[in-house]
Amino acid sequence: MSKVKIAVIGIGYLGEFHAQKYKVNKNADLIGIVDTNNQRCKEISGKIGVKSYIDYKSIIDEVDAVSIVVPTNLHYKIAKYFIENKKHVLIEKPFASNVSEARKLKKISEKNKVILQIGHLERFNKAFVELKDKVKNPLFIECNRISPFKVRGTEVDVIMDLMIHDIDIIMSLNKSKIKNIQANGISVLTNKTDIANARIIFENNCVCNLSSSRISDKIERKMRLFQKNSYFSLDYQKSNLDIYKKIKNKDVVSIKKIQKSFPNNDSLNDEIDSFIKCIKNNKKVVVNASDGLNSLTYALKISNLIKK
User: Fold this and answer.
1) pLDDT of 193-251, one tens digit each?
2) Domains of the chain (ranges plus CATH)?
3) Bond from prior residue into 94 cis (ω within 30 degrees of 0)
4) What pTM did the predictor assign?
């Protein structure tokens, strides 16, 4: 395969960024963008310099793969169509509206032997990439994710919108099964949960506290992780990682701090580049359907606990 022929389905706020990244990717040929909002689609197609389409079915014979960046309730229908036509799919998080849809998409992708990647882009943040191999047996993880209110994304609650990123992260770092979940949340500006906190305990006794809010005057995406003789502080927004290690010199114990910064971090670009390379080289994706299904399963459990 030379260049991967690709289209972006859904050209809203995030979909436009997907299109921009594919357009400049040396291994991708962006053949078009698709959106039911014809005016918006033509505006972005003119800006980027690609064809615009209204119906996603009209491009089926022109592509090898698609990015699906539409509202969550449309994920299943659109992804199913492309997978059944043996097209590779990158689908934005959350994977689907419910566990049943996610399981069906996973099964269909396996049957048709196509790549299905889920868009948990924090896995591609260079600070996280630096951290992940240093984590051995986490004891305590604290995640805080807050954002100013935007109408975009409010078709789902804050757990499916924001917290699901951190659910995916902690499950990728700690492979133990989840033993117990406690959760609280409130709705403030929408009829869904806008602020949430969850305490997750794994079978290996690792404890995780997750807090998410979409009602703030700033953006903050941070994680602290503690394990025996070391701890880590990660800022996704700034792509900074602080490493603290216990050092013993004879009878003197001290803490050594190492600071790492990645000013050129572009998680979405790296996510898309990884997707394209996996297609070209027939490699396993970083975030697969099982990962997306697991994070969706526990995000929905947290949502349901809060609703009770």
Assistant:
1) 999 999 999 999 999 999 999 999 999 999 999 999 999 999 999 999 999 999 988 88
2) 4-121+268-287 (3.40.50.720), 123-265+297-307 (3.30.360.10)
3) yes
4) 0.94
